[in-house]
Q: What sequence folds into this?
């Protein structure tokens, strides 16, 4: 029996598995990532699961937990189906929580590394293993994140350079993400809880939290204004070029009309 069908039957023993399924491994996905697509158009019921290549040699019981986690996003269990065994999902979640133990950090930005060392020494007694530390996109909504699957802290580019003038702001973001790595997450039903009461209480322990959050909001506002001015200049430049082109076309048209 295929792992997808086996995973489905363990969650929904009373349902009929009448789906066409495909699965393949890919290097396009980030480490230990996976996704699912479900299509029921034209009377066909297709399940497609794509895994990062690193899943290939992982134990089947752990992979079943991964597949079940994906299936639960597509097929919501009914009330009478919610007492299914969570054994495999728990195996999968415990595996994800420990990925950093057998992964070696390869992508390290020097400035983020300095912030990591400061925060790790000050708040975690140097007990946190160094994750990958990278700059992300210039997002004003997702300021920073921690990815359990590839053990990576990502910080928005809008804070790049701030470490020279306000390292406390960067350290606060780093502290938040290292808390995720330190405290892990809790599985509740078909969802994972990343901001538990324990997490929120620990987050409040950061000194001058309110002041730093105000500074972060000012940084976001300043970046938005700066980005708006840059885009305005770019738009004016494009419009100027269009006007110049139209003038040349008009001039050429007049010359052709008068035969000159």
A:
């Amino acid at each position: 029996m295929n792992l997808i069908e086996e995973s489905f039957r363990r969650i929904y023993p009373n349902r009929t598995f009448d789906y066409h399924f495909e699965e393949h491994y890919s290097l396009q996905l980030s480490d230990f990532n996976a996704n699912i697509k479900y299509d029921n158009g034209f009377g066909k019921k297709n399940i497609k699961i794509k895994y990062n290549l690193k899943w290939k040699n992982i134990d089947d019981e752990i992979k079943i937990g991964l597949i079940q986690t994906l299936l639960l996003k597509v097929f919501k269990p009914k009330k009478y189906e919610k007492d299914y065994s969570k054994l495999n999902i728990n195996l999968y979640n415990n595996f994800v929580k420990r990925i950093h133990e057998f992964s070696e950090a390869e992508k390290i930005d020097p400035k983020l590394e300095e912030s990591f060392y400061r925060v790790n020494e000050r708040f975690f007694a140097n007990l946190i293993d160094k994750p990958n530390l990278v700059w992300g996109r210039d997002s004003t909504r997702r300021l920073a994140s921690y990815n359990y699957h590839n053990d990576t802290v990502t910080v928005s580019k809008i804070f790049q350079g701030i470490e020279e003038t306000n390292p406390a702001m960067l350290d606060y973001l780093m502290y938040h993400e290292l808390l995720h790595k330190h405290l892990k997450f809790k599985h509740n039903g078909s969802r994972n809880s990343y901001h538990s009461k324990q997490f929120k209480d620990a987050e409040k322990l950061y000194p001058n939290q309110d002041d730093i959050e105000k500074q972060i909001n000012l940084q976001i506002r300043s970046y938005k204004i700066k980005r708006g001015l840059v885009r305005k200049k770019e738009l004016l430049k494009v419009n100027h070029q269009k006007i110049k082109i139209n003038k040349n076309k008009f001039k050429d048209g007049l010359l052709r009309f008068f035969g000159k």
Observations:
- The longest strand covers residues 20-26.
- The two ends are 82 Å apart (CA to CA).
- The chain is about 50% helix and 15% strand.
- The helical segments are 3-11, 60-74, 87-97, 110-123, 162-165, 167-183, 197-203, 209-257.
